[in-house]
Amino acid sequence: MKKTIYLLMLLVFIKTGFAQQREVLDTVLSNYKYPYPVEYINIHTQQQHLRMAYMDVKPIIPNGKTVVLMHGKNFNGAYWKTTIAALYKEGFRVIVPDQVGFGKSSKP
Fold first, then answer.
1. Which end of the chain has less neighbouring CB within 10 Å, N or C?
2. Which helix (H) or strand (E) holds 14?
3. Residue 19 belongs to some domain of the structure
């Protein structure tokens, strides 16, 4: 019985030793890769200087139309990856901001 308990404890310790290490994210997701290049605009709002991140995806063959995709709360612009790809393919310019307080934008 003791051998079984020791064996189980050994397996638990071995398993936790090989657990994946999660990458720690900072408040502006510096090391989180977005599907398209991220640009920034400096804004002054709420009596603060803030930085808003956005992706501006310009098609190779434009159809002359632009779509702005706004994410919901607790999401970021990268959420729209599949939709951006579909619109880009159809010739749309797609602008996807990270609202202030979310994603790569400032957190006031």
1. N
2. helix 2-17
3. no
